[in-house]
Amino acid sequence: MDLKRFLVFAAFLLHAALGFPIQENYENSTATTEPTEVTTQEDIYESPLPTETDEEDEDIFDKILKVNKDSSQFLQEGDIVPRRSRSAINCRHCNWPQSSDGIVRIPYVLDPTYEESHVKGIHDAMAEFEALTCINFVKRKAERDYLSIRSADGCWSNYGRVGGGQTVSVMKGGCMWKGVIQHELEHALGFLHEHSRSDRDKHVKIMWEYISPADRPDFKKFENSNNLGLPYDYSSVMHYGPYTFTNTTGKATIVPIPDGSVPIGQRQGMSNLDVAKINKLYNCSRCSTILDGPSGSLTSANHPKNYSDNTNCVWLLRTRSRKVSLHFQAFQLQKTRGCQGDYVKVYDGSSKSSPVLMDKTCGSKIPNDIVASSNLMLVEFITDGAHTASGFQATFTAVRRQRRSSIHN
Ligand SMILES: [Zn+2]
Question: Is 193 part of any known ligand binding site?
Answer without folding.
Answer: yes
